[in-house]
Amino acid sequence: MGGGKGYTAVPDVCRIKVDARLTPAFDAAQARALINGVVQAIDATMPTILATVALEEESWPPYVLAPQSALLAALSKAAKEVCGKDVPAKVAGPSNIGNYLAGQGIETICGFGVTYKGLHATDECIELATIAPVLKVYQRAVEILLSAEKQ
């Protein structure tokens, strides 16, 4: 991001970065249309010599694990064994490294973890007592996946 030099200069070029988070209900085409619509509205309201240009650097696709996913089944079974209750599957994100991995054809579990408060805020914190059970769930899920692979 940037534009101009110093606080009194009117920049001839200004760059901003927009991080549009994708989900199964809001894909890259919709994000492009939304951003381009905003850009066009700004240009119509405040015309300049050159039109604003929106360039896409990269895009990570939204994803949801298939209900028959072995990874999802293993984590669900492990959570039931370790925590003694069903842990519902839900969409995490809306954009995280799982989106990148899914784009590479790699199944991923995102979002199952420790209890937290203030996500990405200055007062972000976790409940320390939830670390051990989450670790046990992931360890057990790996055991389940490895034992299924041997069969």
Description:
There is one protein chain. The protein has 151 residues and is mainly α. It folds into two domains: 2-45, no CATH class; 70-150, Orthogonal Bundle (DNA polymerase, domain 1). Helices cover 39% and strands 5% of the residues. The protein contains four helices and four strands, in the order ββαααββα. The strands form two sheets. It has a two-stranded antiparallel sheet with strand order 1-2. α2 (70-83) crosses α4. It starts with a strand and ends with a helix. The mean pLDDT is 87.
Characteristic key phrases:
151 residues; DNA polymerase, domain 1; two-stranded antiparallel sheet; 4 strands; mainly alpha; 4 helices; 2 domains
Layout of helices and strands, plus pairs?
Layout: E1 2-3, E2 14-15, H1 28-45, H2 70-83, H3 97-103, E3 116-117, E4 125-126, H4 131-150
Antiparallel strand pairs: 1-2, 3-4
The total tally of domains equals 2
The general outline is: elongated
So how many helices?
A: 4
Question: Overall mean pLDDT score?
Answer: 87
Secondary-structure element pattern, one letter each: EEHHHEEH
Strand order of the largest sheet: 1-2
- What would CATH call the architecture of the largest domain? Orthogonal Bundle
Radius of gyration, in angstroms, nearest whole number: 22 Å
Number of strands: 4
Quick description:
The protein is mainly alpha-helical and 151 residues long. It has two domains: 2-45, no CATH class; 70-150, Orthogonal Bundle (DNA polymerase, domain 1). It has helices at 28-45, 70-83, 97-103, 131-150, and strands at 2-3, 14-15, 116-117, 125-126.
